[in-house]
Amino acid sequence: YYAHHLNPEGIADTMAARREWINEIYQGKVYHQEPMYVYLLAATYRLFGLDPNWIYLWQLLLGACTNVLVFLIVRRYFGSLTGLLAAVVVMISGPIMVFQMTILRTSLTAFLTLLLLFYYQKMLDNQDRKSQLIFGAVAGVSMLTQSYFLLFFMPAMAWYAWQNRRDVKKTAIGLGYIIGALMLIMLPLFIRNVKVGAPMTA
């Protein structure tokens, strides 16, 4: 984007040098960070051109959805009034507003954190195949955005198994649906890595 729009003298050479340096470190095949956010940026530029305002727009929309999720999650435990107050606090939070207008994956991460928690709660309540598949899919998207979501996913699965420990068959089937949906979402990354000779989970 900057090379296309600003094009100060020498910036192209500088970017090429940095790309070569990064490729030397990662052997040109391993992602520097999880790919989901970068793919979303690329898709936005592809569809709407090299205008970052489109990115800011969908990040603002994610911020609005984040407020809704805060309300729904807090309402479940503390009531509607508390949920509304929590959503308002998030809405007027300065750091959150700054990150929504910055090309960083922070806004997406915040949204996925709450979305993952929301669907985990629904899965524990409903205990049906649909909820399990949705939760697994959201977990897969989250891990493609930032791998540290695994730190939530593993204990969440342990708690799910503990809650259903008296029905081993039901628990095993539920875990199968969840992990199957997660792996299906992450499958394109695994295939890409195998094709280029990178570690499958890199």
Provide structural commentary:
With 202 residues, the chain is mostly helical. The chain is 79% helix and 0% strand. The chain has ten helices and no strands. Helix 4 packs antiparallel against helix 5, helix 7 runs antiparallel to helix 8 and helix 8 runs parallel beside helix 10 (168-196). The chain is flat, with a radius of gyration of 20 Å. The mean pLDDT is 87.
Structural descriptors:
202 residues; 10 helices; mainly alpha; single chain
Straight-line N-to-C gap: 26 Å
Q: Quote the beta fraction.
A: under 5%
Instruction: Give me the oligomer status.
Output: single chain
How many individual helices? 10
Shape: flat
Low-confidence spans: pLDDT under 50, at least 5 residues?
none
Tally of DSSP β-strands = 0
Largest sheet: none
In short:
The chain has 202 residues and is an all-alpha fold. It is built from 10 helices and no strands.
Helix and strand arrangement:
Blueprint: H1 2-5, H2 11-26, H3 36-48, H4 53-78, H5 80-91, H6 94-100, H7 106-126, H8 129-145, H9 150-163, H10 168-196
